[in-house]
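Give me the fold.
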Amino acid sequence: MLVKKIEFTNFRNLENTALCPKDGINVIFGNNAQGKTNIIECLWLFTGGRSFRGSKDSELIAFDSDHAEIRLEFNSEGRDQCIELNIRNGKRSATLNDVPKKYLSQIIGSFTAVVFSPDHLTLIKNGPEERRAFIDGALCQIKPAYAVQLSRYKKILGERNALLKDIPRHRELEDTLDIWNEKLAAEGAAVARTRALYTEGLKKHAALFYDGISEGRESLEIEYKISFRAENTMSSSEMSQMMLENLRKRQSDDIYLGYTTTGPHRDDLSVKINGKEARSFGSQGQQRSAVLSLKLAEAALLAEKKGEAPVILLDDVLSELDPSRQDYLLSRLEGMQVFITCCELSVPARGMICVDGGRLTCTEE
């Protein structure tokens, strides 16, 4: 995967211009609040995902403009390709290789990238929602159909939760709940099994990376924890039956609470260092090493499944890591196209991009 050209029109504070990065490492440098992260965010949007900064689409448009356009020329699968994104009225529309797409999800998997920001360093420390989002984001790029699968599950979950809130006022509706139980169990089992299988591949890479970071002194173990007590090795039909039984068992509690208490929306990724939960017992350094290992494993597994390395996006991460972790990270990214934001030119690079008030100036090594 190689980015050849990026064009910006009314995107954030960036000037309307085109950027032609180099292969290898590209360093985006400049003072704070000049627009460095905007370039990383722009590249990430071409994966079809939401902004990793949690921004609304309307916030991506420059002040005093009613729309923004960004365009990416890249090489993937041995051929040159192009994605265009138009952002207007708080929504994005996409064109892939000059073919308009009805849904944004239809570009997922065409351009693949792994993004790593300071916020990701809290992946272990924070709650399970972030860890589920980490797995889902990685899975969508490897298996674009998973995005549709996950969307179906969330829609059915929303319908069941709405029904649970209505039942106390209209008890006759309880008779219809089992229809939603069956639908939710079928879709939920598919989501949980897909996540569990992905985690099995992820854990091997993550363990190796952590072993390298710790120089063999510590071990990392990860496991996908299913909330409805199914085993990761179960088939989809077995998982579906197990989830259905749990939904029925917890039905009274769900009606009382007004929401669904079991299913993949309650699952978690267990991360252990030397057999102990990293969230509760790991030091900050150990937690950061674990996150670094997970992100490197995500990139390795994506390259393995897609047959080519993803583009790596590092947003002000190096300043958050000590020198040994910085060196380890950069050594594992050799041969990939990398974009790094920083305040100073401290990383050897093929391409150097200075950002000052949204204006881009490019130099070469």
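The first strand starts at residue 2 and ends at 9.
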